[in-house]
Amino acid sequence: MAINITEENFDQMVLKSENPVLLDFWAEWCGPCRMISPIIDELHQEFEGKAIIGKVNVDEASSISSKYGIRNIPTLLFIKNGEVVDKHVGAASKEDLSEKLSAIL
Question: Is residue 97 a part of any domain in this protein?
Fold first, then answer.
């Protein structure tokens, strides 16, 4: 299961990570977010040790959402060395997300 990213662990897990990070911005009430949740969990297993796969609940971590200007969910940010290097808004296939993540490894 993907890592729950909170305001408390954000700096350590995302900004200071030596590995690339995929952040899924989501909410309980978001249908498309629930649709891609299994894909995010599968990517977490497949990229374990190579990348951090995390989920940010926009209702619980609003300061992180504000920092990155998240307006629509799901929004997926690809972060390397603390900087956003790619972004996807809306649902996506596992293949597309895997390709984007592999490209920044």
Answer: no
Catalytic residue among 30, 89, 91, 92: 30
On average, the pLDDT of the chain sits at 96
> CATH number of the domain that 10 lies in?
3.40.30.10
Question: 3-class secondary structure for the chain?
Answer: CCEECCCCCHHHHHHCCCCCEEEEEECCCCHHHHHHHHHHHHHHHHCCCCCEEEEEECCCCHHHHHHCCCCCCCEEEEEECCEEEEEEECCCCHHHHHHHHHHCC
Active site residue 27: no
**Of residues 2, 23, 33, 76, which has the active-site annotation?**
33
Over residues 2-48, the pLDDT tens digits come to: 999 999 999 999 999 999 999 999 999 999 999 999 999 999 999 99
Confidence (pLDDT) at 50: 97
79 is catalytic: no
- pTM reported for the whole predicted model: 0.95
